[in-house]
Amino acid sequence: EQGLQLLELGGSVEEDYIRIARCFEATRQRCCRLEQDGRRAREELARVEAERAALEVKLKHARNQVEVEMKKRHRAEAELEKQERKLQLVLELLMREPWGNEALSREQCSVLSALAGRRLGAALAPVRRPSAVDESCQSLLSHSDISYDRTEDDMVRS
Asked: Coiled-coil ranges per the record (predicted)?
């Protein structure tokens, strides 16, 4: 009788061991899948990090280029204002001098008068030259709003 009980007990223990072994195998397979998913995620992360680094380099170059172009623009505007002042002085001199009116034809005098009038009006009003970008409106992306610090970039990463 005890032998039969041991055989019966042995049968249920064996089934329990088989169930435990199946659970271990399922867990092992799930761990393998998770390990593969982790490997793929690390590879994707490395790819995205490399892309981000390349974009940061492009951003740095673009910021530098914007700064260079802004400096060129300011120099060109200063030179233009200097040349406009010189032209204004020449026009005023020609219009004031009596010999200037005599040496010039009526047509030349009228052209110079028109130029002098326009230049005098422009000199009294703030200098407004046409540009590719209308700077009179409050743009969200005006060049004066460009910030060269990285605080916003740092906040996005955290």
From this structure: 38-97
